[in-house]
Batch of 4 targets.
Target 1
Amino acid sequence: MKRLMIVMALAAMLLPAMGQEVEVTSQRRLLDGVEGPAYYPVLNASGNRLLFSNEDGALKLYDFASDVTTTVTRDRVVGHDACFGGDGKVYFVTQRVGDDHLVYRTGRTFDAATGQLATVTEEQHGAMCAVPATRGGAVKAPGRDYTSGSDIGSAAWTEGSRVHVMVGGEERVFSPVDSWAGYLWASLSPDGKRVAFFAAGKGIVVIDLRGQMLAMLGNYEMPCWYNNDYLVAQNAKDDGHQFVSSQILLIKADGTWQTELTKPASMAMQPTCGNGRIVYTTVDGLLYEMKINIYD
């Protein structure tokens, strides 16, 4: 009898997941014939503007409404060192290698409305990151942080094996899982109630605003909130030298369900989400836009 009750309980838990379906309603190549290889795409919350880096590291901004691409900076911006703030500005970090072979970084902002580019931190050696916030943005620097105002709203970022969460002007620091290689890619859910991040060796972790672990979603990378209930992530495999497969997954935030949006052979990676729009690139730097419907 006890065994039967356990089986029935497991079946009840699986019913919602079994009833879920995802339909890819559209998929198209972006900037085909207009731009060369493009990497590290970042959508704003409204989903109408897109940041990306070219193969030389120059940062560009694409406006979906006007179909116009603007060069933000020709200086090198590495990886996910660029983001949209809640004030509409772009926050980013450029870097160069000095004559002493050390890497020097500088925090900057770009106002797309005016075209104004500003330097907000002095050039310095050491880790530096751009942080999006609900009312503005920040650049976390070794010497002195830059924030766009006295109240930038809510934000989340990582430093080493710690995730930092800004809530109501209070900064909270958590280390919910052990990870000797550190955390990456922290982001707030759209409703601001949860944080997702990647812990090296452990995968995607979801916590609440008090640092309590809510779910572990698997050993995938670059999580991005699609909405309050789902995240999109990269599932990449390598042979120690190069990628052998990479695909985009849709994962339920409680960890109970997931599905593939692209096949492993697609070599799709680096997903970003905004207002129902999904953008990703491929290992060859081809940008794609995808739209989906989720049926529960």
Target 2
Amino acid sequence: MKKILFLAFMALGMSAMAQHVTPLSIQLADVKLDSLRTLYINEPTMYRAALEVVAQSLAKNAEEIKAAKAELKVEQTHGKEMANSIKEATKMAASLKKLYTKEESELKSMQKVVEKQQKTLNKQKELNQSTRDNYLLFLEKQQKELGYSLREVADRQRAIADLETSIQNGQTRLQTYIQETQQKALDLAQLEAQLKEKNNTLKAEQKSAKSLQQ
């Protein structure tokens, strides 16, 4: 019974694996240099101050990307842990399924032996009633215990079947989760490239604005 409860717990754990990565919500600062240049064309000091504000926004974006990358790393590690859990659960389920199938086969073989003994006893008319009754009671007790054991094995086999279904569902959810981490990594790489481009453009403009003021 403890094994069945354990398997039920495992199945519950697998079915609860509908997890998703935290979506990205980073909005890169909009670097409208042409508009700023036009706005502060005759005010170089104000223009440089406006460019500094843009630089601060981009620096904030850099921190957001850094935090998102750290978050992604944890999510990727979690994905590996889930994959290992599924792998171990799969091995355990296969091992127990084989064990219970063998146990069922042995119990049924024993059941046939007892049934054969009962038939043999019924043919042995020469035995006195007391001997027959005592042996018959012993065989009936064996049959009862074997029947109980077979029902218990059947319960465990059903638990294994449920676990296998949960594992399959968990594998599907894991694949979705892994795809989400991969997409998030691509999105972050794209954001980093865009941020780098914006920073390069801004630095060139700041350098130009500084030379114009001098």
Target 3
Amino acid sequence: MSPSPPFDKTRDNIAVVLKQFTLKKVSENFFDSGKAEPYIVSVAIDSNSLTVPTIHFNALPFPNVRKGDTVSFDGQGHLIYGPAHPGAFVAYSILFMESDSDLRELGTVVEDAVRSHASNAGLKATLAAGLSSALAATLVGNLIGVVAGALKHNKDDELFRRSGTLLRDVTPAFDILRTYESGNEYIDCQTAIVPLRVSNHLGTSVRCVTL
């Protein structure tokens, strides 16, 4: 078997994935039952938004998770971004929430919040006018804050946020094959960046809002 060709940072796709998370503590709303319903929301903006202003997002619920449980994912993991080629950079933010309401409309709530903020803040013009990695990180942070606010309006509790910015022109490009761990009193999680030409279709696919 011939070896795989080396990663081409100018052409090959990447994916940002969540490998696993542990629910270390539940909010006070779930003390009686011992079970919680955490969910993950992510948003991302890459440098291609200079030509086609686009926001990438994903949302996935996890019913009946107990304190101390670790949720892991088959294949490469739960998609936060991609598989796609980000251009020069991609900035992303991941939000962990605990549900106190019906999760069936989670994706719709997130998309509506993203579209509403994008319209009110004039994001299309901002992205098209000029986009740096620092600006993308700021915009993603603002977006995830708006989404968190919309979800808290449903009496859901925020557990944890984490963010990242990946650059093409570093070594290794986009930090591929690296894994990062972080957490707080509620969540421990592990994310990774992998070269991934196509999705394995083992979870929810990243959705795009074109502005």
Target 4
Amino acid sequence: MEIDLEKIREIYGNSSIYEISDNIDELKANMKYLYNLGIEDVLNVIELYPYMFLQERDIFKEKVDELINSLGDNYLEELSNDFNLWSSVDE
């Protein structure tokens, strides 16, 4: 599976594609972090919140960890059922 860049372009405009390209290392590292946590819908999250993945790795990790801690042990189920929860990491 691949990131649907056309979907991102439609929602966020052409500049989003350039920003992703300029920050591809951060995007990859942040994607990998989510996959390591067991998040299966990473590609869908990227398409909805692409700028979230362009944050510095440490900041991204801190925000994700905070979100997970707030959700508790069922974080995987919660995150897969409500994509709006990711908005706290996107801020």
